[in-house]
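Researcher: Quick one. two chains, 450 residues in total.
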Amino acid sequence: MTEDVARRRESVPGRRGLRADAERNRERVIEAARAVFAQQGLDASTNEIARRAGVGIATLFRRFPTRDDLIATVFAEKMRDYSEAIDEALADLDPWNGFCVFIERVCQMQADDRGFADVLTMTFAAAKAFEEERDRAANSLTHLLQRAKAAGRLRADFVHQDVPLILMANAGVVTATRDAAPEAWRRLVGYLIQSFAAEVAQPLPDPPTPRQMYRALLRLSDTAE
Amino acid sequence: MTEDVARRRESVPGRRGLRADAERNRERVIEAARAVFAQQGLDASTNEIARRAGVGIATLFRRFPTRDDLIATVFAEKMRDYSEAIDEALADLDPWNGFCVFIERVCQMQADDRGFADVLTMTFAAAKAFEEERDRAANSLTHLLQRAKAAGRLRADFVHQDVPLILMANAGVVTATRDAAPEAWRRLVGYLIQSFAAEVAQPLPDPPTPRQMYRALLRLSDTAE
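Model:
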């Protein structure tokens, strides 16, 4: 658990004394909020979240006095998962292996949880609460890429924006094959990772600019199914 | 224009004498049908198609006496585009270049027309009208892959099912970046094509079986947005 999360949990009144059913309600609200935010964006109605969670609106407000509390809680977990994936990749003594495992892991997260990428991208929209964590993750990712390039294994023209590009492609396969061929995304990621190796690098079309990708991600979070 | 299309056009009563506005109505019905089929599948209501096209139901039935006429017209065009892309690839004297241009072209078709892959996959559901054309396209694709493998350029483990896998991944990028970074898909396809080269081939996760992919495609056509 990061310090931020620990601090936030402390700040929720009565958190320590919650009985089991209150804890269950809290988890249901978080789960419903995640689904509703992913479907409708951050402007989704709090009533809708309470309805989906099967709790009264008063219960919801008791656990999350403001919408920001709820957003922060929902996004903290995803953001933490993502940051942890980068940190673990950086802990790998083999920079290329660390990079490959990172790509596989975030794509696995997406396959396990359709909302993962949506919610991840929504951290842009919910920027204020996550500025620090997001900047830390971005810096770590830069370090991860630099390290794998310095080792001569990751192609030099791989850029930051390629990571959301991979997630968008993976989302297409995950969505289409979830029921009939749930492991199909592994094949796509297998191909992609092989194409990222420095030794095979041929010229590529330019990536989207960081600004274009940022706009695409913002738009995604506006229109997430 | 293929013979089939010419024959079908001849068989529509009064087709030759259609005035410009009747022709416009016909085009609007086809366009509306394409969109509605893509959203709701082949069982979509004919009334809905007429409404979307802004024409009366009588006008629709005058142009397309049966639902099958409409389905055949809508799908013929896409199927023809797809078949032509394979034929042109086969006409390329360089088997690897032909293959690469084919992949880029179908991904371009998808970028130009969101419904392309949906409608293409729907030819499975509308199988009767297209069995022959579809089998011909499948055989041509087999030939295209074999030829590129025989030339030692396409990796030996590339299979038929990888083509819809590419289209699914491309769809994810196209959908997410259409407005903000409409050329982003080219970067994905650039990476993928480099990973298909025989000289870089490393072991890969297994592809979905043909049956799994078929089921995934059928499901897509059931649930296309």
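The radius of gyration of chain B is 19 Å.
Researcher: Thanks, that's what I needed.
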